[in-house]
Design a protein that fits this description.
The chain is mainly α. The protein has helices at 5-8, 13-22, 28-40, 49-59, 65-91, 103-109, 114-117, 125-132, 156-170. Helix 2 packs antiparallel against helix 5. The mean pLDDT is 87.
Length: 171
């Protein structure tokens, strides 16, 4: 699967560019509110306390926005995606591999400058360069699309509140 490429090579270019431009974090509460609106598409007053605590603890390690976002995507977002891929592949009776999640690759790319991963017009620059030299160069021209996880007639904010309420009512 392609899990890990977006997190390692800054494929979520809008949020990584935003964090880079944000620079140094002077107000942690203000930054967390802005980050959660960008990441979860909701106001932070709808976020569970446990998640807010996680982001605050992660933020305590570094006051540079791009570093926080990189750590967040590698340590929070990616494990959730890997769990989803693992459960889906097991349910289908298929074995899946995640080649981008190699420890060597993650260690090599960790804290590399933004310019190595993003250009003004595209993301995942190292992968694009490799693909351009292969018979699969056409892949670099296909626009990125995400997997829709919303229920019909629900926006991201409503969906988050619905799933959050459902989870806490059942636990």
């Amino acid at each position: 699967t392609g899990e890990g490429a977006d997190e390692i090579f800054f494929g979520y270019d809008n949020i990584f560019r935003w964090a880079y431009e944000y620079g140094e974090i002077l107000s942690k509460d203000h930054f967390i509110n802005n980050f959660l609106e960008k990441y979860a598409y909701i106001k932070s007053n709808n976020i569970p306390e446990r998640f807010l605590d996680y982001t605050k603890n992660l933020l305590a390690k570094d006051n540079i926005a791009i570093n926080f976002v990189e750590d967040f995507f590698l340590n929070f977002h990616l494990p959730g995606l890997l769990m989803r891929a693992d459960k889906s592949s097991m349910a289908a009776g298929k074995e899946a591999r995640v080649p981008f999640c190699s420890k060597k690759l993650i260690d090599f790319m960790y804290r590399q400058p933004l310019e190595i991963r993003l250009s003004p017009s595209s993301s995942k620059i190292p992968l694009r360069r490799i693909l351009m030299e292969s018979k699969y160069s056409f892949v670099t021209k296909i626009p990125k699309i995400g997997f829709r996880t919303l229920l019909p007639n629900m926006n991201k904010s409503d969906m988050y509140i619905y799933v959050n309420d459902l989870y806490y009512k059942n636990n």
